[in-house]
Each structure stands twice: as structure tokens, then as C-alpha cells.
Design brief:
Elements: E1 2-11, E2 17-26, E3 29-35, E4 47-49, E5 53-57, E6 59-64, H1 74-80, H2 83-99, E7 102-107, H3 114-123, E8 131-134, E9 138-140, E10 150-152, H4 155-169, E11 173-177, H5 196-208, E12 212-217, H6 220-229, E13 233-236, H7 242-251, E14 254-256, H8 259-266, H9 276-299, H10 321-328, H11 333-339, H12 342-348, E15 365-369, E16 385-390, E17 393-396, H13 398-409
Parallel strand pairs: 1-4, 1-5, 6-7, 7-8, 9-10, 11-12, 12-13, 13-14
Antiparallel strand pairs: 1-2, 2-3, 5-15, 15-16, 16-17
Helix pairs in contact: 4-5, 5-6, 6-7, 8-9
Bound molecules: zinc ion (ZN).
Residues 63, 65, 108-109, 308 line the site of zinc ion.
């Protein structure tokens, strides 16, 4: 089935903006994207009038945890909750994420392998949600950060086995914990975790299987270990130093800043319920994190958008807050959009499928009322999202409702 969107401002994810453009969709793909004179729309093609709206590629969040719900003590929740309840909640979080214009997520750490069931249910059309690329359990050392959503392993051989377990369960990406963290009590973010040999053994195995590797690292030493071992992205990169920055640039390693994670935890008051150790760590690192982001931006390190959604008060569906935060720290609106579309698709290795509005790509897009190149924060306003299209179908927003109504009349 064909569909056209006309009179719409198009941000194509290639750095171009077309005023009064036309998008033509056939089946699950874009077949034409261009100015109104460049795209021929056949008479009778169902058409959406995009006047006043901006179309941009469906957003991609490179760092979420669908098994966490943004409550104050996520570690305690996971400890006390039935896994089946976690899965049901994750399905709801996936729907909220989609409603916010996020059509693809990378889930970089779940409490168990049920995340792959959610991925299958979404891709089979059984539940609404973003397309999911998932890591399964994060791989960490015994007693290490993120062990509440991790597989503890020590020594190259056991790490290798842990990687193979995730691959066997269906992992699209492998996540390693290369430093301490904020939320796990007793771990120091500035201290490295797992040795470079352990990381290299695991990352080599992931690469042999053709998978990408994401490494959690706050401290510079953990980042360097992970980069030298072959990581594709450094998650957080909070305490970047010159050497780690230079290594990232030289190896083309992405920074996934997750500014929202530290900011939401650091903003938490004394009675908010977040364990005090986590608030103290987040507060002490927030300014350094922002400086590291600016350093990465200045020095040309590739940046892909990720929120760490699911961590305390960092809610699924609020994902676009990360773009506002990046713009507040000096990124242009266009750069922020690219980090959440084309660059994110490149990091995830799915650039030929999604991330730009181009003929041949899957038709994933967001239609927003207004111009996010003037005010990026409009992407956070659910009432301005006129439609979210995924693989050629409006799946959320008023346009999805009217499409459904039209379908039921036929
Ligand atoms: Zn995370």
C-alpha cells in the first residue's frame, strides 16, 4: 500500500532540510523523498497533509534498560520482583518509548533473557514497541557494577563462556562493564573493572560472531581498557581524559553520553528514595560528565544518543530529554538529531535499514508539530507528536488513530 506525506518540512538525517517536501511510502519502505516538484504522487494515493509539521527519522536510543522502570531503587525492585512482572512492565515501557517517537532501541542490560521474548513479540507485531536490539545480561566481574542485570564472570575463559551464553540466547550486541558504576553499591565509578585481557577475550568472541560491543565506563582507565580491547562504543564516558579521548577518536569509537542518567539521579532530593551512595556519586560526577561531553564534541568524537532510560527518575518515554540536554551543552539541534538517527544507526550497524529518510530505507519517522531545529525541546512534548511511523505504518499518535479509523470503515 502507498501513502504520501506532503507539504512537510523534512529533516532527512543526512544533514539536509527540505521545506515543503514530499515523502512517498510503499509497503514498509520509503520510495521517494524530495521537494514537492521532485516527487510524483499518483492520483488516489492516500495523503497526509504535513503543513506545519516536521518529519524526521524515527529516533534511536542506543542505551535503555526496558527491565527497569525509573523507580528510586531499581536494584531493590529487581531483587524483589517476579521476573514475569518485570517482563509485563517492560512491554508497557516499550509502548511508551514508541509513543515518544523512538522506533528503535538498544537494550544494554536486562535481568534475564526474557528481553529476547519481548524483542520477538515486537518484531512479530504482537506488542507495540520500538525495534529492539538487545544484549541480554551485561557481562561484569564478580561483585562488579550492574551485576543485578549482569552475568558475573572472571578470567578470559569464563568471560568467553558468558559471551557465548548471550549469543546463544539471541544477543544482537554484547555489553561489558569496564568500570564501577553509580547504582551498584560498593563499586567506584572511577575504578576499572574487568582486566584488558578479560575484555579482549570477550570482545574478540563478540566480533567473531559479527556482533557489536558496548562498554560501560565512567573512569578513563576503564575506557582505555575497553577501547584497546575493541569496543565500538563507550557508554557514559563520564571522566574522559585526553588520552582516552584521543583513543576514541583514533579508533572511531562512539561516545553514548547518557546525560539524562546522571542528571536525573543527581537532581534527586534527600527523601526521593534513591540510595544515598548513588546520589552522592552522581552529584560528584555531573560537572565532569558535562565537561567530558563538551570535550568529545570539540574533538570530533562520534556521539550517539542514549538515555539509560529505566534508571531512577529517567523514564521510558522521556527519551527526547537527552537531545535537549545535549543542545544545552553546545550541540546544534541538527547535530543532536543526527546523533539520535543516522549516527545511532551507524553505531548499531543498521545504517542500511534505518536512520535516514531515504528511498529504500524502512519507513520509520516522527511527525512533530513545529520545527525542532528552532526548539529541540518540542520533541519532548507528547501532544506535539502527530504521528510515529514504523516500517510504513503509523503506530502511534493522532495519525495512527485516523489510519485505524479509515481502515475499519473499509
Ligand atoms: Zn545503563
Amino acid at each position: 500500500m502507498s501513502m504520501a506525506i506532503r507539504n512537510v518540512r523534512i529533516i532527512d538525517g543526512l544533514g539536509q532540510t527540505i521545506e515543503r517536501g514530499t515523502l512517498l511510502v510503499n509497503g514498509d519502505r520509503f520510495v521517494a523523498v524530495g521537494g514537492e516538484r521532485d516527487v510524483r504522487v499518483r492520483r488516489g494515493t492516500p495523503t497526509v497533509d504535513g503543513r506545519g509539521l516536521t518529519a524526521l527519522p524515527g529516533l534511536i536510543d542506543c542505551h535503555v534498560h526496558l527491565c527497569l522502570g525509573g523507580d528510586a531503587d531499581v536494584v531493590g525492585t529487581i531483587r524483589d520482583e517476579e521476573p514475569a512482572l518485570t517482563l509485563l512492565k517492560a512491554s508497557r515501557f516499550a509502548r511508551l518509548t514508541l509513543t515518544a517517537g523512538v522506533t528503535t532501541v538498544r537494550d544494554v542490560g536486562a535481568r534475564d533473557h526474557q528481553i529476547f521474548a519481548l524483542k520477538q513479540a515486537q518484531s512479530a507485531g504482537l506488542v507495540p514497541g520500538p525495534r529492539i536490539l538487545a544484549a541480554g545480561l551485561a557481562i561484569c566481574m564478580t561483585g562488579g557494577h550492574a551485576r543485578f542485570i549482569g552475568r558475573e564472570a572472571d578470567g578470559p575463559e569464563e568471560i568467553l563462556r558468558a559471551v557465548r551464553e548471550q549469543l546463544a540466547a539471541g544477543a544482537d550486541v554484547i555489553k561489558f562493564i569496564a568500570s564501577g558504576g553509580v547504582l551498584t553499591p560498593g563499586t567506584s565509578p572511577d575504578r576499572p573493572q574487568l582486566t584488558q585481557d578479560e575484555l579482549a577475550a570477550g570482545m574478540d568472541e563478540a566480533r567473531r560472531a559479527g556482533r557489536r560491543v558496548a562498554a560501560h565506563a565512567h573512569g578513563a582507565e576503564g575506557m582505555k581498557n575497553a577501547i584497546r580491547a575493541g569496543a565500538h562504543s563507550i557508554e557514559h564516558a563520564t571522566l574522559l581524559d585526553d588520552e582516552a579521548g584521543e583513543l576514541m577518536r583514533a579508533h572511531g569509537v562512539f561516545m553514548v553520553p547518557t546525560l539524562s542518567a546522571l542528571a536525573t539521579t543527581a537532581a534527586c532530593g534527600p527523601t526521593c528514595g534513591v540510595p544515598e551512595s548513588a546520589v552522592t556519586k552522581a552529584r560528584s560526577m555531573k560537572a565532569r560528565h558535562e565537561a567530558s561531553f563538551k570535550q568529545a564534541l570539540r574533538s570530533g568524537i562520534p556521539i550517539a544518543m542514549g538515555t539509560d532510560a529505566g534508571t531512577p527518575f529517567n523514564y521510558h518515554g522521556d527519551n527526547a530529554q537527552e537531545l535537549t540536554r545535549m543542545v544545552a551543552l553546545g550541540m546544534s539541534q541538527m547535530e543532536a538529531i543526527l546523533s539520535a538517527t543516522a549516527s545511532a544507526a551507524e553505531l548499531l550497524g543498521i545504517r542500511e535499514l534505518v536512520g535516514t529518510l531515504e528511498p529504500g530505507k524502512l519507513a520509520d519517522l516522527v511527525l512533530v508539530d513545529g520545527n525542532p531545529l528552532k526548539r529541540i525541546e518540542i520533541l519532548q512534548d507528547r501532544s506535539r507528536i502527530a504521528g510515529v511511523m514504523q516500517a510504513g505504518r503509523f503506530v502511534s499518535g493522532p495519525l495512527a488513530d485516523s489510519q485505524q479509523a479509515a481502515g475499519s470503515k473499509q
